[in-house]
Amino acid sequence: MALPRKKLPIGIQSFAKLRNEGCYYVDKTEFALQLIEDGGYYFLSRPRRFGKSLFLDTLKELFEGNQSLFTGLYAENRWDWSVHYPVIRISFGTGVLGNREELDTRINELLSENAQRLGLQLHYKSTGGRLMHLIRTARETFGQPVVVLIDEYDKPILDNIENTERATAMREGLKDLYSVLKDADPHLKFVFLTGVSKFSKVSLFSGLNNLRDITVLPEYSALCGYTDADVDEVFAPELALGDLDREHIREWYNGYNWNGEAVYNPFDLLLLFAERKFRPFWYESGTPTFLIKLLSQRKIFLPELSHLQTDAALLGTFDVDNIPTEALMFQAGYLTIDEEINRFGKYHYRLRYPNREVQQSLNDSLLRDWTPKPQDSLRLQSRLGDLLLANDLEGMGEHLKAFYASLPNEWFTNNPIAQYEGYYASVFYAFFASLGLDITVESSSNAGRLDMAMRFQKQVYIFEFKLVGDQADGSALRQIKEKDYAAPYRGKGEPIHLIGIEFSKTQRALLRWEVETEE
C-alpha cells in the first residue's frame, strides 16, 4: 500500500501554519528544550534558507504555551504548558534598508508591533529606551521573564556590505539595539539571535559577553537542516515513489556540516520532492553577485577552495572592513567543515565543498564571470562533456587549446583576474568542476601549478599544469611520472590517463597537451 503523502512546506516559516495544514515536519523540539535547559543567551549562524526562521517561530509557540501545535512531538510531554512567557520577536528578513534612518524607522516599527501584540504601550523615543521599556513592561504585566528572538540580525549590514560607509552605519544602529540586552538581563528568560554571518562581538554586541555561540558545537550541527535519518523517515512517502535515486540525492544535496552530523538544506529537498528533478535550487535562489565579485577581486586560486584550512578565530571573524575569504565562504554556505584538528592546543578546520550542487554551481558562476563570452563557455562545457563521454583525450586537448587561443588581448588588459598567473589553472579547473565531476586536488600549494585527479566512467585522469616560457618542454608530464602521482590509483583495474598541460603566460596559450595511458 502506498504511503500517504503530505504537503511540502515550501517557503513556510510559520510553525502554526505548517502544523495546522498537515505538512511534513522534521521535529526540532528536542533541540529547543536542550537549549532552554542549558542556558539563556544564544547565537546561531547558518546560511540562508536553512530553517532558522522556522526554528525561531517554533521557540515562540513553545514559550507562548500553544500546546496543541506540539501534539506528537518530542516537547509534548516534556514542557510545562501552564506557564506562558511574553515573547518579543524581531526579524530583519523583510525588505532592504538603504540607510541608518530607514533602519531606525524599521526598528521602531518592529518594537511598536511587538508592543501592540502584547497589549502594551511604548512611551520612549530612542531605540534603546523603547526596547528596554518594552522588556520591563512585559515582565511586569505578564509576571514572567521575557523571551527575545531576533532573526536575520545581520541582514541590514549584509544588504549594504559593498558600501563600507552605509554598512558601518547599519552596524552602529544595530549595536544600539542589541546592547540593551545586557542591561535587561534581570528581566529576561531566553535570548536567541540568528543570522548568516558572525560579526565580532566587539564591533556589534558591545559587551554582550554572555551570548553563547553554538554555530560549530557538534551537538547543534543538525539544529537546522535535515539529516539522512530525517530524509529516510519523515520523507519516506516521497522516496517510495521510486523515481529519485537515493544515493544521487545524497551526492547532490547532503554534506553541510558544523562539526557534527551532516545535513541537507531543506529548501533543496522540498523543491526536489516537488519537481522530481535534480537542480541547484538553493544556489539559484540568491547567490550574491558580491561573492562572485569578491572572489574575482582577490584572484582566488579555485583548486584551493576545495581544501582550505583555517583556525577557529579566523573562521568566526567577520566585519564590515574585514571579510576573510574563508569566513565568507563558510558562513555563506559555500564551504563547510570537513575536519576539526587540534594542533598545539589550537583548533583548526579543514574546509570543503558541501556537495555537488555547490561545487558545480559555484564553479559554473565563476567560469562565466572569468571568461569573455559566457555563451562560448557554455558551448565549451557541453563539448567537453561529449569528449569525456567518448574518452577522446586528443580531441579534448585540441578543444581546450582553441578556447585559450580565442581569448582576446583586450580581455587580459581590462580584467585583473585574467592577468593573474593562476587564472589559467583556475579556469581549467572550473570547466571540469562545473560539470559536476569527481575531482580531487592533489597538490595546489602555489598558483603556478595544478595537480588534479578525476574519476569518470571507471577511468582515472591525472592532470599536471605548468606555466612555462615561450616553449613547451614536456616538464608537466615528466613531473607526473617522476613523482609517480598515479601510484594511489593503481591496482583497481581502471585505466589511468596521465595528462601534462603546459601554458605560456607570455603567449597566453595552451602550448602542450601530452597524454600517456596506463592500462
Write the layout of secondary structure elements.
Blueprint: H1 15-20, H2 29-38, E1 41-45, H3 52-63, E2 87-91, H4 100-118, H5 127-142, E3 146-151, H6 155-158, H7 164-178, H8 180-183, E4 188-195, H9 201-204, E5 212-213, H10 228-234, H11 236-239, H12 246-253, H13 266-275, H14 281-284, H15 289-297, H16 302-305, E6 309-311, H17 312-315, H18 325-332, E7 336-343, E8 346-352, H19 356-369, H20 374-389, H21 393-405, H22 409-414, H23 416-419, H24 422-433, E9 438-443, E10 449-456, E11 459-468, H25 475-482, E12 496-504, E13 509-518
Parallel strand pairs: 1-4, 1-5, 2-3, 3-4, 11-12
Antiparallel strand pairs: 6-8, 7-8, 9-10, 10-11, 12-13
The span between the termini is: 50 Å
Proportion of residues in extended strands: 15-25%
CATH homologous superfamily grouping of the largest domain: P-loop containing nucleotide triphosphate hydrolases
What is the overall number of helices?
25
Poorly predicted segments:
443-449
Task: Label the CATH architecture of the largest domain.
Answer: 3-Layer(aba) Sandwich
Structural class: alpha/beta
Tell me which oligomeric state these chains represent: single chain
Helix content range: 40-55%
Spatial order of the strands in the main sheet? 2-3-4-1-5
The main pleated sheet reads as:
5 strands, parallel
